[in-house]
From TrEMBL:
SMART domains: Josephin
EC number(s) from the headed UniProt entry: 3.4.19.12
Pfam families xref list: Josephin (PF02099)
Gene Ontology MF annotations: cysteine-type deubiquitinase activity
Gene Ontology BP annotations: protein deubiquitination; proteolysis
Catalyzed chemical reaction(s): Thiol-dependent hydrolysis of ester, thioester, amide, peptide and isopeptide bonds formed by the C-terminal Gly of ubiquitin (a 76-residue protein attached to proteins as an intracellular targeting signal)
Residue stretches making up the Josephin domain: 5-99
Organism, as annotated: Melanaphis sacchari
Keyword terms, alphabetized: Hydrolase, Protease, Ubl conjugation pathway
Name listed for the protein in its UniProt record: ubiquitinyl hydrolase 1
The organism's place on the tree of life at top rank: Eukaryota
Root EC class: hydrolase
Keyword Hydrolase set for record: yes
Amino acid sequence: MLPESTPIYHEKQSRELCALHALNNLFQSKEAFKQMELDAICLSLSPNNYINPHRSILGIGNYDVNVLIAALQNKGYSAFWFDKRKKKIFVIISGINFI
């Protein structure tokens, strides 16, 4: 008999909030991040810009990867950004805990 497992939390896509849903799905909690938090991160990344380059000017999300990385850092995590356009290198990962 298989042990009972915890159900997997999944947020469905709403508007252009893919980064918010991805973060909440990663942390398995609806409360992990809110849109207001991601908007605040956008403002902290570019405080003096009238039009913020890190999100949609309509205020409906479309956050860029810098917001996602900063949100993870705020929770004590980090992310590795691999650019497929650049030369491939091998990365040795040791002593890293994955979510």
